[in-house]
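step: validate -> pass
step: tokenize input -> pass
step: predict -> running
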Amino acid sequence: MKTSLAAALCLCVFMFTGSSLKPKLVAEARLFQTADVSKPIGMAKFYDEGKGKIRLNLTIDYSERADSMVAVHFHEHGDCGNMGGNSHGHWNPTNEAHGKWGSGAYHSGDIGNVQLDAKGHGSASVVTDRWSIKDGDVKDIIGKAIIVHGGVDDYKTQPSGNSGPRVGCGVIEKVKAATSKSHMQ
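step: predict -> pass
step: emit ->
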């Protein structure tokens, strides 16, 4: 009886501390220069954190923009054509004013400014319940574009933050369950 109880307890502990609680990669976007779509400049990975939260881990490696700051936003359409212009305006499902992430009012796609170091490397991470990957949900990020701007977001100018030209773009795509990874990268 003690052995069976111990085995059941071990199984329960494994189930609650095992891989099922690790964030699961659910979506990603490969970022490329808008001027030369053969040149990658970064990656956005989205993880299911549970309890309705999604985490974005964004990395940018853009040597031509070394020692600068770039603005990053989600845009309405997952079309990087026309130097990113086909992605149209900022994704704003809640119809709020443009602003700084976490401030009183901001677009759900207002990621903000990312500082790039001397080699052009920068990163950002955001955890939120403002995004989902559920078809038909107003918060669904799948199919949206991630735009890297050549300037800095002033967090004031409406509706875009006066962030400059669109120098990078990628489209958020759902990761297929068969190739999904259950660990962070």
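step: describe -> The chain has one domain: 22-178.
step: cleanup -> pass
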